[in-house]
What we know:
By secondary structure, the chain is mainly beta. It has seven helices and 31 strands.
Amino acid sequence: MKKLLLSAALLTMSIISYSQVYGEFSLPHTTSIEKLSQFVGQRVKVPSNYGGDIHDRVRFESSDFYAKEDVIYTIEKVKANSKVITLYLSDTKGNKFKTKIDAYKRHNYNTMTTCESFFLVDKYNDYVINLRKKYIDYKFYDESGKVCAQVISIKFDEVGNSLPQPVYTVQCSMFGNRFECKSFEEVNRIFSKIGEPILNATNDTVAVIAGVAEYIDNKYSSDVLKYRIKNCYDRSYFNATKGEAEKWALNVGRVYTHPRVKHSYKIIGIESNTKYIVLNTNTNQRKYCDINNTEKYIFNEDLSGNYVSILSKVEKPSNPAIRYGKTKTVESNSDITQYSYVDNVIDILIVGDGEKFSFILKNISNNSIKIIWNEAVFVDFNGSTSKVIHSGIKYAQREGDQSATTIIKGAKIEDVAVPTCNIRYSSVLKEWVEDSMYPTRPNENLGQIRLMLPIQIKDVVNEYVFVFDVKYVYNHPEVLVY
Length: 482
């Protein structure tokens, strides 16, 4: 045992370079007595999980006694020559040890190949103390000089074989939320931006970074870091990345005009990360616009309206027995205007509502009449024709034959006529839909659409053509230039 305690050596097959993971806290490999002497009196230990094989551990010479990972040794004395570095160690129980280290790292099996197998405990502890002394209570200030964030603690996470890494906990004073960063460089990069102004194209301050809102996916990078942004216009707050806020701020102060609209709009602020605050330059009224589609939609309300189909005439059949009837507008409680046509055969109330024609038709003749649906036709603005279908016909069977509808003397029916050209199957909705007969954008000079209903009286088919003038009616004509 005495021989065991008086001599020691490391037998190794392959030494891991702990300078790669422990850096400055590894005992350096040097033959300089001057450099080694500075570590006399310091404590060292073999790092945790040092190697995976019995030959990868520190073993004392002429024995099977290994240096233990949980034991701290003190360096009592050092010696060195051109070939060998010798360390004299002791443990807390007073046992003495000696290790020899190959100065040339030639993997001599009787000596250690490197000093870097030893971890400098005291040097690391001093580092921890100094780090906490330096950065705990470190403060960041906003644009008004008030404390906006502060480092409140530093803990050290151990991961695998690597050196325990500092984790900085920072608290935002204004919002009371806390965040963790893995280096002070990250802390400084993130929190030093608090108080930084967000400028528009003319370098006016539009908003100010007021705090940190959230990290996304726990990454500490400016492209995924959400800041708490203070809007200077009304001192409200919203969350955005610094890049997003800067991009949106460039539009603040921009004025939008439209050749058909009397007034213009000016963006005066950012309401949130989805909307701009917009000012009507004539009325000074405010409204909000989508932040990503401002130019496209800012005048939508001024140009809003709807198409109306006005029954301008009914082209009566050439049959001389049918007297020419009259058309008139019928008052209705609904938003859709209805129209009436009456002759000596039919009395019809009809309306075009975009997707279809709806009507109530009464037979006022002395004979039964039939609507021949297979011959009914819709004519669009360009003169293109299409079949129509009526109630009870499945859209999937829109191209099939349709039975005629018989209306006896004095009776009436309520039905619709849907152009088949506007019927389609939506793969998104998983159902059949009706497209509008009208375009999606305002068009003041759209033209006419026509519906031809063939009505058979006795053996004669009479073609009734209902001609509609389609116009766009604005909701706010008072703001438009004509």
